[in-house]
Amino acid sequence: MSSETATTSTRPAWVRAALQENLRDYGLVLALISIMVFFQFTTNGTLFKPVNLTNLVLQNSYIIIMALGMLLVIVSGHIDLSVGSVSGFVGALAAILMVQYGVNFLVASVLCLIVGALIGASQGYWIAYMKIPSFIVTLAGMLVFKGLALWILGGKSVGPFPPEFQLLSAGFIPDVFGPVMIGGAKFHSTTLVIGVAIVGLMLFSALRSRRNREAHGYEAEPFALFVVKNVVIGAMVLFLIYMLASYKGLPNVLIVMGILIALFVFVTKRMTIGRRIYAMGGNEKAAKLSGIKTERLTFYVFMIMGALAALAGLIFAARLNTATPKAGLGFELDVIAAVFIGGASAMGGVGQVAGAVIGAFIMGVMNNGMSIMGVNIDWQQVIKGLVLLGAVVFDVYNKNRA
User: Which of 5, 69, 265, 334 holds its CA 20 to 30 A away from the CA of 86?
Assistant: First the structure.
């Protein structure tokens, strides 16, 4: 009887400790849900319409892709201000290759990705080996590649792109199994099957990760909280899949984005290089003393960021079907904001892929919702700035309290 009483009395404290430890994760999911519900009401139901949700994914795909690379940069203790200009420059280069010189879209795309990786590597060299602060190097890069984009385009827009290249951003996966009727409405059955499979894999991976923690003697969150968190996330994914299936199905760019997210989750959680990046960001001197080649690691991080910025530039150019001198303007602000809102620390060493993705969706939903409501662009910037400041203040407050 006494043992049962003791267990009952300690359970609230255990739950409270687990909530505090995972406050950022739970808060992000709740914040995204709250923001979406708010804009669903204030836009008279427009936000959750299938066509708008599809546009929301398409409009934010390149931000999410760059946020994955920016997460590694910020976790490693650096910053990259050049990603918007690099993406705009690569989009301009793709237009010149495909439209003016008639280069095959696949060859041109591969060349552009290589150029992006080389740009990231060149900046990473100055940061890693010459010890120049990343803020200075990437600020210079932002100005350089913004100017090069203007020069290569001659100050004018270039397009349209080949139809095959446009499918990167405007295309949808084919319905292999054929449409299915549900409640009198037609749905993209292949999208539904993929969605159920994705949620199943997510739940299986989460459960296996929990069991591994318990098997190695680490304390896991209360099972009830674990179930609630994963059920809520799974329900959100299924809802998005259901709405997309009722329109045209999964966009091609969402498949690309999903593969990259899964890859970065694997790298950051399962691979040695991921653990070393976190160690370097947490304490670079200690990481170096433990045998980690921090210079080479920093070089690789910026090379990855450059390649992802190039991919984002290709996706954005394909979506617009033209390359413009102003492409990429301000992208770096949304990307950095998404990572910080997602829980990354400005001091380095802290941040998760899931948090960066949710942070990007929070920014995207806010942009989309405020645009539908007719909020002026100046007030949109004010609101996003306050949200970013609040996220960083929250992070600093938690660190000081700990």
Answer: 265
